[in-house]
Amino acid sequence: MEVYGKQDIIVTTLSGLENVLEKELNLLGINQTEIINRGVAIPYSKRNLYLANMACRVAMRVLVPVFSFEANDTDQLYKNALHLKWEKFQDVEQTFAIFNAINSNVFKHSQYASLRLKDALCDRFRKLYNRRPDVETKSPDVFWHLHVYENKVTISLDSSGTSLHIRGYRRGHHGAPINEVLACGLIYLSGWDGTTSFVDGMTGSGTIAIEAAMMAGRRAPNLNRRNFPFRKWKDDDDELFQSIRKELTQRVRNTVPEIIGIDISPRSIETAEQHAKIAGVSKLVKFKKGDFLDFKPQSNKGLLLLNPPYGERMEVENLNLLYKEIGTTLKHSFPGWKAGVISSSKESLMAIGLNSYDTRHLLNGKLECDFKLYELFEGKKKKIEE
């Protein structure tokens, strides 16, 4: 059995964004990194922990592995976990919850594995103090994360609690909104540096445009989040935490290039404007009611991102026709621009009729998607190169 003792931090992300996350961590000054499946490992320090939680735009969770062992069944899982020094990281008065990510032929019932781990933790405290901590699933003091791959068990402290993609500005349910982390991933993959115009052509609830505004304005995505679980850890350093918050606040700028979100639905525009206000970027992004297919940008260069209907979650009478019209609009209305389109419909993406210079395979929820990038030229590319 191995006890890590807080030597590593695992910053998780969505599949396909590992390299993007590594670059982002490097820009934050964290240079010792190792890419793993759906994440990046970095050295443990409180500064790295606080920075990754507050400032990483494509991070989902920040985990600190503290225990690791092998188990071939739930009884062995319980016996090994019973001897772990849980009290080193949690007081008996603190509530807790156990969340899991299990990919194993050994542990086929993930909830039962979590239940046995909970029993071991409680029995350990009962043996030491003659009482046990309470389980609280909604807002626990301590978030434990159980990861199992085949028979390899890793138990981590989850320093993020609620997934970091939940920034707090989206309210209610609106159609098929894109995950905030994925939205930032698309922006990073497109190469946009925040100095040229930006258009979110089918903005929906405004996520892509809002994340672009936060990025251009250098606003840390979770700067104002209040309920980080690590604030209740025994070794929390409030002085360092406040110092990093101040440092991130001082980076904010209020001058950004033109950022526009377009949608044909008045309700979507109203929702997007509300979200931008909550996010604190209402002065940095403009939302316009209209059909993207009729839009003509004022700038001669910039980035256009589109998250059009895929056909799975939102019905479109003729999806391929829509994508063909998107291709026509890109070609004739956006010369000099770069464009990115994400979709799970490979056939519809083909209907765009333009050659992409890069394709990334990503997940939007459970949907396997292609993100295609286009460089748009006035006339034929050959003529420009000549």
Describe the structure.
The model is unreliable at 382-386 (pLDDT under 50). α2 (46-55) crosses α7 (238-250). Strands 1, 2, 3, 4, 5, 6, 7 and 8 form an 8-stranded mixed β-sheet that branches. The protein is elongated and about 75 Å long. The protein contains 11 helices and 15 strands. The chain has 2 domains: 2-158, 2-Layer Sandwich (VC0802-like), CATH 3.30.2130.30; 180-220 and 241-249 and 257-385, Rossmann fold (3-Layer(aba) Sandwich). It is α/β, with parallel strands linked by helices and 386 residues long. The protein has helices at residues 18-27, 46-55, 74-82, 110-129, 180-190, 207-216, 238-250, 266-279, 319-333, 346-351, 381-385; strands spanning 2-3, 8-12, 34-36, 39-43, 61-70, 96-103, 142-149, 152-158, 197-200, 259-263, 286-289, 302-306, 338-343, 358-364, 367-375. β10, α8 (266-279) and β11 (286-289) form a beta-alpha-beta unit.
Mean pLDDT: 92
Order of helices and strands: EEHEEHEHEHEEHEHHEHEEHEHEEH
Low-confidence region ranges: 382-386
| Count of the domains | 2
Report strand %. Answer: 15-25%
Number of helices: 11
Query: What is the number of E strands?
Result: 15
What name goes with the CATH superfamily of the largest domain? Vaccinia Virus protein VP39
Biggest β-sheet strands, sense, barrel: 8 strands, mixed
Give the assembly state of these chains.
Answer: single chain
Radius of gyration: 23 Å
The CATH architecture of the largest domain can be named as 3-Layer(aba) Sandwich
Q: Calculate the terminal CA-CA distance, rounded to whole Å.
A: 65 Å
In the CATH hierarchy, the third-tier topology of the largest domain is known as Rossmann fold
Q: Please estimate the helix content.
A: 25-40%
